[in-house]
């Protein structure tokens, strides 16, 4: 299985909501770089701009200014450089949410295969890819189950598989361990690290989960719309 | 690409089936209402078909004998029978009454007076299921099976008791009431004769009138009183046109020379279908319109609610790059799926309960096809509200 590579670089990213007197500067100057195969933490208090940054990185909202580079391609520089953001999200950005948000009426395999199918990959090939991912995430035995039949940890692993399904160069994980206990939370982080290494994917984990923060080698703190890079403990997950 | 709509229906089939069942019963009622209207039209046409007539000769300037009352002398038939182009002519009387069988059974029926013993005359019951035609001049009856009567039953019509000697079917009035055929003399008496008290009172009044009770003119009073108590009227003369003659060509001289009104088959259809049942048709039309609106509202509400319950999934689908068209198609297909389930349930339900209705309910395939098309259209339109909501869902809703 080959993956897209290149990581993500963000330079002087700024986001202002509203105009004139009512303008709110949610992001002032965000600078980040995540290399392929790397997992970094993005932490900050409520209202610090985490969600806004995530939405900008996820091509859901348009930053006001700055520059974003995905792999070797500049995707934003004072405006989107890619006309079809939907395709960008589908093919080049993976999402892992706080809750797994699996599609309840699709079985596990099809939840994962849906993304490649949406990208026009034939069903059989998409399902084969999904099964490979489920196998590497150790949930192959649940391939035919419905999401409601899975445990919380299994659901989250399936959602990670879904995020990887189109082999994106970057994955944005939004509080992926929030509903999990310590053991399962660390298990999810272990999986994300393994997948990042295996797939050479850059993974940004937005979290304020004290259990997992010590596992990151690099952490970006966001406060008042600005990021500060910090060396993490990089505690072993073994 | 997998069908998201089909998977969702498969996943929550019980919800879809139960919703479809409810919608189906509503569609069943709608189809039945259409069937009731078709049945009324068919009853009216059956009345004309079964009469075997090409022309209906009635009292001048009336629209009898079905839509208005009409009264002719019963000897008019002889002169009409002699008119050019007339193959057969027969007197007929119609009146609706509550017919009671001796022993209890009771039915609303149209009593038809026909000439007995002459097979093939217009107005006669076309074919019999059992028994025989009327052969005697009095006290025999041929009845439609919808009356619930059987051969040998005795029925009371006014003063006399009649024995059922024949059974027929689909011989109904324009209102769907089954017919009871009796000899015309009896029918004239039953329809036009007064009761005994009224006859006695009339005789006393006539005898007290010096204009009729003249000692110098013996027999005059008796003649007048006989005239008062005899019944020589019928409602119409049914005419069958001879081969090679058009109905209009035969009707024209009867109308002109006999000073009567003559209706052709087309005129009669116009009176029965367009005039007599027009109000009922409008009434049913209103019901159909209301049922259509209610069905549309229910489908719209169901699909809208189902979509609201999937907002988070829709946000996720949009976030991971699902096209708006795919999401809209999912909702539309679910609405259409619901419509298909509803229509099948409705059609089956209407087919099952239609025969139980007291009046004829005619379920036509063409109505079912139109109904299916209308259901699909309504479901498609009803889904637009839900599609609008789904398309406005912000993918950011998937992010906490």
From TrEMBL, chain A:
Please state what the protein is called.
ABC transporter
**Alphabetically ordered keywords of this record:** ATP-binding, Cell membrane, Membrane, Nucleotide-binding, Transport
Q: Which CDD domains match?
A: ABC_MJ0796_LolCDE_FtsE
- Domain ABC transporter residue range list: 8-238
Q: Does the keyword Methyltransferase apply?
A: no
User: Which top-rank group of organisms is this from?
Assistant: Bacteria
Do you know which Gene3D superfamilies this protein is assigned to? P-loop containing nucleotide triphosphate hydrolases
Establish whether keyword Cytoplasm is in the entry. Answer: no
Q: Which SMART domains match?
A: AAA
* InterPro entries hit by this protein: AAA+_ATPase, ABC_transporter-like_ATP-bd, ABC_transporter-like_CS, ABC_transpr_LolD-like, MacB-like_ATP-bd, P-loop_NTPase
Please give the Pfam families that the UniProt record associates with this protein: ABC_tran (PF00005)
- Do you know which PANTHER family this protein is assigned to? ABC TRANSPORTER ABCH.1, IMPORT ATP-BINDING PROTEIN
Instruction: Cite the GO molecular-function annotations of the record.
Output: ATP binding; ATP hydrolysis activity; transmembrane transporter activity
Organism for this UniProt entry: Limnohabitans parvus II-B4
UniProtKB/TrEMBL annotation, chain B:
Gene Ontology cellular-component annotations: plasma membrane
Transferase as UniProt keyword: no
Instruction: List all membrane-crossing ranges.
Output: 284-304, 325-349, 369-391
Q: Which domain of life is it from?
A: Bacteria
The segment(s) forming the ABC3 transporter permease C-terminal domain are: 286-395
Family annotation (InterPro entries): ABC-4/HrtB_transporter, ABC3_permease_C, MacB_PCD
Sorted UniProt keywords = Cell membrane, Membrane, Transmembrane, Transmembrane helix, Transport
Q: Where in or outside the cell is it found? A: Cell membrane
Keyword hit for tRNA-binding = no
Record membrane topology: Multi-pass membrane protein
**Quick one: signal sequence residues?**
none
Record domain MacB-like periplasmic core: where: 17-255
Q: Which PANTHER family match?
A: ABC TRANSPORTER, MEMBRANE PROTEIN, HEMIN TRANSPORT SYSTEM PERMEASE PROTEIN HRTB-RELATED
**What is the protein named?**
ABC transporter permease
